[in-house]
Design brief:
339 residues; alpha/beta; Rossmann fold; 3 domains; 5-stranded parallel beta sheet; two-stranded antiparallel ribbon; binds 2-acetamido-2-deoxy-beta-D-glucopyranose
């Protein structure tokens, strides 16, 4: 593919130089030739093939900030860590010294994938459909334990060729806890400090790991904090980070006894907190709004809350499934409003 791009670019420059020579051979220098060439390149070539400029990769952190504020409930720690980490990572004034690596932990339905979706949408014009966005699911993409070596080679090759093409790539690894523990070791040299591996610079890329590991530790810690009277909004990253590191290191899965963790290459462990009644309510109302219903009845909200399971005893204040399946449940009752 690369070679086509080069040929295309050269051809464009060639034609535009002929044009320029015909019209005004003296005053327009070679700078102008290249200028016109790249203009046409951007206007034409980037139309049918995703390029690697600010247009395709706006990296719009303000948009992300607004989306998270508007659409995510109960995850103040995650929001803060993610925004700050991304803001500094693609800061042109201070190039990063290593690839950004974030590891999201917590209960299903807490918003790990949901927030990842907003990250894709804000960093890349085409969002999840962008060629620069890669979402791997352990069970679907790397299912067979016996093929780990093959997966490793394939993964390395994919990451390398994509980053060579365009340095700002996003790699998401979903269900890391179900991933064979050796697989992620292949990434380690790529996410290390000042990583130039075979002349490829990986420092601008972003790796996000999603897993349920640490969920019970997070919940236990939440209950402890709750019992000692600390308000949810005052809970901080420091209250969790060490717990999660221990958790993902010891539980089975992609990080199990992993080199990446041993050598501290994960920049931030991000806890996704279990959601409480008020957050689930907000999710429900949000889902009604998505379907154009701005004043759902209290009865309907309660009927959807009935599906939600709470735990752990005796407090039972945390939803076991977060906002998962709320959307489907709301879909079941909205038809009433359409008559
Ligand atoms: C880029 O990564 C994707 C996986 O997301 C892979 O299918 C594709 O082949 C890679 N591109 C190149 C040029 O290797």
């Amino acid at each position: 593919m690369e070679i086509y791009k080069v040929i295309f670019f050269l051809l464009l420059n060639f034609y535009s130089s002929i044009l320029i020579v015909c019209f005004d051979p003296l005053s327009l220098g070679s700078a102008a030739i290249v200028g016109i060439g790249s203009l046409v390149y951007e206007k034409v070539y980037c139309r049918w093939k995703e390029c690697c400029t600010e247009k395709e990769i706006p990296g719009d952190i303000n948009k992300l900030e607004n989306l998270l504020k508007l659409k995510v409930y109960g995850q103040h720690i995650a929001e803060e860590v993610i925004i700050n980490a991304l803001k500094s990572h693609w800061d042109e004034k201070q190039p990063p010294s290593k690839a950004l690596t974030l590891s999201f932990h917590g209960w299903p339905g807490g918003g790990k994938n949901y927030i990842t979706g907003f990250i894709k949408e804000s960093l890349f014009s085409l969002g999840g459909a962008s060629d620069h966005v890669h979402h791997f699911n352990a069970r679907i993409d790397f299912p067979e334990v016996s093929k780990v070596l093959q997966y490793q080679m394939q993964l390395y090759e994919w990451i390398k060729t994509n980053v060579t093409k365009c340095p700002k790539q996003l790699f998401v690894f979903d269900e890391v806890n179900k991933m064979h523990s050796g697989l992620l070791n292949v990434i380690k040299p790529l996410i290390d400090y000042n990583s130039y591996v075979s002349k490829v610079d990986y420092r601008k890329s972003i790796f996000i790991f999603l897993s349920n590991t640490g969920e019970s530790l997070i919940t236990e810690q939440m209950i402890k904090l709750h019992r000692s009277g600390i308000e949810r909004n005052n809970i901080q990253l420091q209250d969790f980070e060490n717990l999660i590191i221990k958790g993902s290191f010891n539980e089975e899965g992609g990080f199990h006894h992993s080199d990446a963790i041993k050598s501290n290459l994960i920049d931030h462990y991000v806890p996704f907190l279990p959601l409480e009644l008020e957050h689930i309510r907000a999710c429900i109302i949000d889902q009604f709004q998505v379907r154009g219903i701005y004043a759902p009845s209290e009865d309907d909200i309660l009927s959807i809350l009935d599906y939600v399971e709470w735990g752990p005893a005796p407090e039972n204040i945390y939803s076991k499934t977060g906002c998962k399946r709320i959307s489907q449940k709301v879909a079941l009752v909205v038809h009433k409003y359409w008559r």
